[in-house]
Amino acid sequence: MQAALERWHYLIDKRAQQMDEAYARLGRSSADFWNRRARSFHQATKDNALSDPFFLKVRQAVTAQSSVLDVGAGTGRFALALAPLAKQVVAVEPNSAMLSYLRQEAEQKCISNLSYIATTWQEAATDVQADIVVCSHVLYPLREVDTFLAKLDRAARQACYIYLHARHFDELTGHLWRHFHGSERCLSPSYIHALDVMYEMGIYANVEVVSKPPSWRYHNYEVAVEELIEQLILPDNERTRTELRRMLEAWLWEKDGMLVPPVSEMSSAIVYWQR
Asked: Hey, where are the domains in the chain?
């Protein structure tokens, strides 16, 4: 029987190879992916934290005396939402473009108890700790996930909360990938694979599967094409844009003045444990 970590490595390596090959055909790499996507990611996530099941779960553990560590904070969706509830929030985020949006939002909201560590979690100091550690949608590309999880566990004085997909957006767009690339999309590991690795590590976590509307919403087809050209690693030319738009017009739904994927809900998992 394949060990959980071996299975994780297999999924990571297979996806990485597929993506590297797709980028190589374009003469590019994934190195600046989040620099290119920071703005759209911020727009898609900045206003939905307070109703998100992950925030609703974590806030039950946070008090006015709590310190919170948000690992892979991105543009600050949860760090900003948790700051008014906590004594202190520390956001760990290596991408300068993402961190810039986080800082701007904190300044606009006059949040003074939020500090920043501008590095990866792997490179962060080993003595960084907080009462509550949160980590939202970060694990997917990490090959050495066991080392990453062990460091999260050591950093949490009271509890650790990890948010992971049960169903990937890449699964929804699989037909688009297949059309343009001629192969099935290799998916990242999901919560069940992380849970299996944790079990092998001796971390016996709780799991709560939750559902919420998809966060991928587009103002118009031009925006949708722009986003999916990037996500599907496609050549940015008029022929591809025209063909992609035609397919999106047949696929996306209109809801509340926005274009959305044809699903009402997406499932994720809150994986958490007490120290």
From this structure: 4-22+29-170+181-218+267-274
The CATH topology of domain 4-22+29-170+181-218+267-274 is Rossmann fold (3.40.50)
Quick: pLDDT tens for 206-252. Answer: 999 999 888 788 999 999 999 999 999 999 999 999 999 999 999 99
Contact predicate 132/61, CB 8 Å: yes
pLDDT in tens, 127-141: 999 999 999 999 999
Task: Report the side by side order of strands in the sheet with 114-117.
Answer: 114-117, 88-92, 67-71, 130-136, 156-165, 266-274, 206-212
H-run or E-run covering 194: helix 191-201
How far apart, in whole angstroms, are the C-alpha atoms of residue 181 and residue 19?
11
What pTM value is reported for the model? 0.93
- Residue 136 to residue 70: CA distance in whole angstroms: 8
Q: Which of 159, 37, 187 is closest to 101 using CA atoms?
A: 37
